[in-house]
Amino acid sequence: xxxxxxxxxxxxxxxxxxxxxxxxxxxxxxxxxxxxxxxxxxxxxxxxxxxxxxxxxxxxxxxxxxxxxxxxxxxxxxxxxxxxxxxxxxxxxxxxxxxxxxxxxxxxxxxxxxxxxxxxxxxxxxxxxxxxxxxxxxxxxxxxxxxxxxxxxxxxxxxxxxxxxxxxxxxxxxxxxxxxxxxxxxxxxxxxxxxxxxxxxxxxxxxxxxxxxxxxxxxxxxxxxxxxxxxxxxxxxxxxxxxxxxxxxxxxxxxxxxxxxxxxxxxxxxxxxxxxxxxxxxxxxxxxxxxxxxxxxxxxxxxxxxxxxxxxxxxxxxxxxxxxxxxxxxxxx
Length: 333
Ligand code: NDP
Prior knowledge:
By secondary structure, this protein is α/β, with parallel strands linked by helices. It contains 9 helices and 15 strands.
């Protein structure tokens, strides 16, 4: 059983040295438990938070403990009457070949209904994040402009496509020409802006001639600076993620801009609301029903970036925080 543990806590960007590969015996399930062989491991930006001891909405991974993460797994041995050997399940198996579960929180997957990896992306936690945050907090109306960054990732790509289905105009922000082309040509976004372009504020303003009504915040940093002047009266900002900040060790230099943000919030009557996907747990059935339907009807598309082998996980994860992935990042074990 190979497992990747947290070797030390990064200050700033993680490096491969913050992780360690260990080998050990395959665990043995006790009464009521199942042995899971992890087939696919999801890599997600929130894992950077788990590497840190800073106070957050979830507990950190302890030093020398296995890195956490969602997996698609096969039941390899069962002492739980609810699961049979060979069942495929969505689990929280972590960065390792095998894990043991008492069955709680496992979701059985039907490989005939959809490719199993979709349970980690478009039909999983990231997809539900897009669906709930956009529809409940963003609430786009037909004709409004919705902007989202990290737009080719599993969250952003679904935000833009659902915005289109609701009759809004979707503008995606992504890193590089290939990702921008993918947004307009494959996903049907109305416009795409490269956040590395020389003049991001001007490029974004040109892509949003009627301003911005919903900004789905995935990124923060320079992208938010470009968005803020364009927000219309009564704009909604679901604050979902701040990936540009996750490796920051201190506040950026410069003047205190909180007064300007608060002034904009007041005078333009903005709504900024942070959320964690599980705040909307009761919407899971509606999410699964709607998004599965749209997928079947070919009204939404998704893209995966699959890397091979557990040992590739640290490098792939480090790359995720810098945009080296193109689509939902998954490790095939
Ligand atoms: P992605 O696959 O989209 O990966 C993150 C992407 O962020 C990168 O690919 C990169 O894309 C972009 N990025 C990184 N640094 C910067 C930067 N400085 N400026 C602009 N873009 C940057 O990840 P997910 O779709 O899984 O997650 C998207 C966001 O949603 C994250 O912030 C994540 O933390 C958050 N999230 C929040 C949840 C919640 O419950 N609140 C649940 C799930 C996710 P590019 O190459 O285009 O720059």
